[in-house]
Specification:
It comes from Aspergillus ellipticus CBS 707.79. It holds the Pfam family ABM. This protein is α+β, with helices and mostly antiparallel strands. Helix content is about 35%, strand content about 25%. The chain has 3 helices and 4 strands; from the N terminus they run E-H-E-E-H-H-E. It has helices at about 20-35, 65-70, 75-80, and strands spanning about 5-10, 40-45, 55-60, 90-95. The chain has a 4-stranded antiparallel beta sheet with strand order 2-3-1-4, with helices on one face. A hairpin with a 7-residue loop joins strand 2 and strand 3 (about 55-60). Helix 1 (about 20-35) runs antiparallel to helix 3. It is globular, with a radius of gyration of 14 Å. The mean pLDDT is about 95.
């Protein structure tokens, strides 16, 4: 049976001098997700060691979860905040889980 879960990997490339602004907007938006999007299972940002870029890793329970995420006023606000700070449109790639550890519950 195929998984209904949806994974995305998103690359954001800020303009010179705009990295911290993008990071702060992400922090605000990710806090909203943590507090309000209970079906969004993974939403984190990584910074490659040698670049001022963000790699976002996202996991949604299903297509409805992703649609609700992308249709929220908070997503629109985040997009408006970071859009002018980026050198190019976000590079979004769908992905599938292959193997590994997705997380651990806190005891």
């Amino acid at each position: 049976m195929a998984s209904r879960e949806i994974y995305n990997v998103v690359k954001l490339v800020p303009k010179p001098g705009k990295f911290n602004e993008v990071v702060e907007a992400f922090k605000t938006f990710s806090q909203h997700i943590q507090d309000n999007e209970l079906k969004t299972q993974i939403y984190l940002a990584l910074r490659p060691t040698d670049k001022e870029e963000l790699i976002l890793v996202e996991k949604y329970t299903d297509g409805d979860n992703l649609k609700a995420h992308m249709g929220s006023p908070e997503f629109m606000q985040f997009s408006r905040a970071v859009g002018p700070c980026l050198t190019q449109a976000p590079e979004i790639r769908g992905a599938t889980f292959v193997a590994g550890l997705e997380g651990r519950s806190k005891l």
